[in-house]
Every structure is written in C-alpha cells, then in structure tokens.
Amino acid sequence: MANVAILYGGRSGEHEVSCTSAAAVLNNLSPVHEVVLIGIDREGFWYLQDLPVPVPDILKVYDESSRLISVLPAGGLTCPDGENLDIDAVLPILHGSYGEDGTIQGLLEIARLPYAGSGVLGSAVAMDKDLTKRIWLQAGLPVVPWRILISGTDSTDSHALSERLFGELGTPLFVKPANSGSSVGVSRVKDARDLKDALNTAWLHDRKVLVEKAIIGREIECSVMGYSAPEAYPPGEVIPAGGHNFYDYDAKYTDPDGALLKVPADLPESTARDIQSIATEAYRAVEAGGLARVDFLLEKDSGNIYINEINTIPGMTAISLFPRMAAAGGLDFTAMLEKLIEGALNEFAYKEGLSYKR
C-alpha cells in the first residue's frame, strides 16, 4: 500500500486530455492505495481535490483557495494551514507543456518526492521533437526527414522557402510545433498557401516548428516501460477513419469514429520484433524512464520503418493505445500502474543513495 498523488490538469493545451487520462488512472488504480488527488488549473495553481464517487469520465479542477497546495523544497507538498501531505509516490498525469517537458519533474526532484516516468533530462529532450530527432539520427535510428523553421526568422511569405521545402521533402508535408503533443497545432499541407496557414497555426504553440516529409503508410505505436532494463510491448496500429487524413486531435479524443485502434497490430512477427527493438533503443537514446509510447510510420511502398516521435506521458484515456498495448503484453491497466509506482519508488531510492558530497 502507498499514498499515491495523482497530478492532473495543467497549463497546456492538453488540459482536458490530462483530466480524462487522470480519471481513467483513478478508476483503475488498485484500491489498496490511498489517493491524494491534486488538480492544476489553467493558470498553474495546484489544489487538493475531493475524491469523486463514482469516478466520472473526466475530472474537473476545483479551485478553492482554502485547498491551495504549495511546494516545499526538500519537504514535499503542503496545504495553506501548513499541514504536510503524506505522499509516497506521485503519478504526474500531465500531457504537454508544464507537465511532460521536465518542469514538473524538476519541481518534484526539488521537493524530494518519488514520481513515475522520465526524469528532467529525458522529459525535456523527448518533448522537443527536433532535439529528439537529432539524437536518434546520431544513434543511427531511422527518422522521418525534417526541416526546422523559427518564428521571426523564417518568413511565411517566402516563395523560395515554399519551393525549397516541397522540393526537398516532397508533397504532402506535415507541419507541427516542436514542443507540443496530442497533435495540437499539427497540419497536413499540399501547397504554398496551406503551408503559410499551417506555419502560422503551429507558431501559436511554439516558436520552433518542424516541417516533415509525409510518409505514406501505416501508423504503428509501441509501449515501453522500465528504467535501466526497459521492455517493449506488442505494437498497436492506428487506422484513421471518419474523414481524418491522419491521427489528429479530434480523432484521438473527440470523435469516437475518428480512428480504428488495433492491438496487437497485424504485422509479420519479424517486423513487430524490429519495431519493439527500435522502440527500446529510441527510449534509451533520449534517457526516457518509467513509461513512454514510441510512434512509428511503416512506409507502404518500401516497408521501411521510421520513428515519428516519443511521448513520455502518453494518453491514458479509455481509448488510448498505451494501456491497451501493455495489456497485450500481459499487464492490465491496474498492473501497469503498479509497475509505475514500484518503478517510481525504486528510482527515488537509487537517486537518494547517490553521493552528493565531495
């Protein structure tokens, strides 16, 4: 038994996704644990929440000032009356900015609280799609060809820019913010006009934007868990439907008919093994830990495997692939959460055992 804090909500554009994932986590957490539910509002304030009975499909964040939480360096979390919250492990179910990017992880490190998932470095690197690709490329892993454009430096009106990007990467292209998730700000473009609009949309979310070659083929995903000896689970497949050209935000979270999710994916055994092996290498290369979902593109004509991106706090909603792939590998949702909590405690014990003295 442990006192487990679930952090959810947050300042990112994925606030609602986080609230939905946290509801699924709360609903599947073993009843042997005591739960401390902490909601983070859109301004970034933390509030202690009552446990809802029954658990709804999506949690809300109630911002009562009397339940405001403070972070105490080396002392955990406290309430306004000075009471210290008794927490053994934290499950940060926070997607995107200020949750998946190393910021929360750093805060929990300062507070000396065990937490599940990647550390500061792994979270920050994996959040930046450009840096992640550079590391994977250096490690000899197959990545989708891309270019970077910076807001204020690269003009959206440049005809030469459009010609260069389509000439180098082909048609169509994908445009996406470098630091975002859940397909927020992502567009599929076919011409110069689409490109300009897509860049302006992506720059609303980040000053650095990726322009990627479109790989025509299948979208395959693979769950990975662990720290020093990570394990990859059977891959799943996302098949966009309902008029969606790719697995966009609506297909992921709002349109029940937006995609067909197949677990395990219908793949030759050798291809599935290759994907699991590459997923584990990709996970290690960015120093991910605890859990991550590695996304792939399997090119239709060549059969080539490309890594698309990695998500260190993947969706945990009722239709998310991560828990389904873990279940296909023998870990149901509750067992998967137990593995995360155990990993958080072991990783914390390891870090506490390191010497920080001369």
The figure for the number of domains is: 3
- What proportion of the residues is helical, as a percent range? 25-40%
Strand composition percent: 15-25%
Query: What series of H and E elements makes up the topology?
Result: EHEEEEEHHHEHEEHEEEEHEHEEHH
**Envelope shape:** globular
Task: Write down the Rg.
Answer: 20 Å
Fill in the CATH topology of the largest domain.
Answer: D-amino Acid Aminotransferase, Chain A, domain 1
Specify the biggest β-sheet.
Answer: 6 strands, antiparallel
* Average pLDDT, all residues: 91
Architecture of the largest domain in CATH? 2-Layer Sandwich
Descriptive notes:
With 358 residues, the protein is of the alpha+beta class. It folds into three domains: 3-115, Rossmann fold (3-Layer(aba) Sandwich); 125-142 and 216-350, 2-Layer Sandwich (D-amino Acid Aminotransferase, Chain A, domain 1); 146-213, 2-Layer Sandwich (Dna Ligase, domain 1). 32% of the residues lie in helices and 24% in strands. The protein is built from ten helices and 16 strands. The strands form four sheets. Strands 11, 12, 13, 14, 15 and 16 form a six-stranded antiparallel beta sheet that branches. The protein has a four-stranded mixed beta sheet with strand order 3-2-1-6. A four-stranded antiparallel beta sheet has the order 7-10-8-9. Strand 11 and strand 12 (231-232) form a beta hairpin. The model has no long low-confidence stretch (mean pLDDT 91).
